[in-house]
Amino acid sequence: QVQLVESGGGLVQAGDSLRLSCAASGRAFSSRAMGWFRQTPGKERDFVATISWRSGTTGYADSVKGRFTVSRDNTKNAVYLQMNSLKPEDTAVYYCAAAPAYSSGSYNQYDYSYWGRGTQVTVSS
To answer: Most-buried pick from 2, 17, 28, 44 (CB within 10 A)?
Structure first.
C-alpha cells in the first residue's frame, strides 16, 4: 500500500508561483511512476504531469508546458510540482498519484493505483 499526502496549495494571483509537494509512505516509491492531475467541480479529472521511476523522464499537458516542472526525490519519498506563471485557468484541486511498481507512466488516470486527497489551488485574476 501507498499513502500520498499533497500540500502547498493556496490562493494566489495570476502570475504568481506555487510549489506543490506530495509525500509518500508505504512500499516501493522509488519504483513507481508518479503523476499529477487536477479537477474542477463538474469537470473531468485532467492530466497535468508525470515523471518516470527509472530515468526521471517527464511529460506534461500542453496547457502547462513551459510553466510547470515536475520532479522527485526518492531519498525523501517525495514528488513536487513547481508551478510558475499561474493563470486563473489553473484553478483546481491538484492530486498526486502513484502507478503500480515498475510500470511506465501514463497520461490516463486509470493507470494509477494510489491517490492523495488533493490540495486546492486558486488563482485570481
So the answer is: 2
